């Protein structure tokens, strides 16, 4: 088929045209139909198909994640039990408010039992946390190096959590040593105190 054939083409007499002309016209019409179908219908469907594929991949990832969690559910439950048990054991090492006086007495007795002299034993202001309160106690003791070391060891072995901070040791004029330190004790808050903490947190969040 040549350019002259196209120029001399009579659409009214298309049925009598050469076979090559008919084939060429059919090819052009087919291409036009395919292009029109893609432009007006298939392009939107292809975009929807791509979106559906992406959603399928996302759903598959979510399914696999949930499946892994379901498979490991018993292990997660056991871990939670272990955590709760460990937390309960730690919580038992914190006295409640009514037991604090006995704990302070234990700290005092730990020093006196080693022959140390308390020149200062001054509880400070409690620092309230989420579920516990921290009480710092300023202490100054005098005695031998061995007795001061034994006192620190006794404090560490108390059934309640007691820690030593800001330790300073120096000589006294009589040949003994002094130790200045901050002894920190901890207690858990009672239900009323926890409720007050949550209320204060809510009020602070509103401001």
Automatic annotation (TrEMBL):
Coiled coil: 66-93
GO biological-process terms attached to the record: type IV pilus assembly; type IV pilus-dependent motility
Superkingdom as given in the UniProt entry: Bacteria
InterPro entries assigned to the protein according to its UniProt record, in alphabetical order: PilO, Transl_elong_EF1B/ribsomal_bS6
Classification via Gene3D superfamilies: 3.30.70.60, Helix hairpin bin (1.10.287.540)
One Pfam family cited in the UniProt record for this chain: PilO
Membrane-spanning residues: 20-41
The keyword Transmembrane helix belongs to this UniProt entry's keyword annotation: yes
Keywords: Coiled coil, Membrane, Transmembrane, Transmembrane helix
This protein's record includes keyword rRNA-binding: no
Name recorded for this polypeptide: Type 4 fimbrial biogenesis protein PilO
Organism: Sulfuriferula plumbiphila
Lineage: Bacteria, Pseudomonadati, Pseudomonadota, Betaproteobacteria, Nitrosomonadales
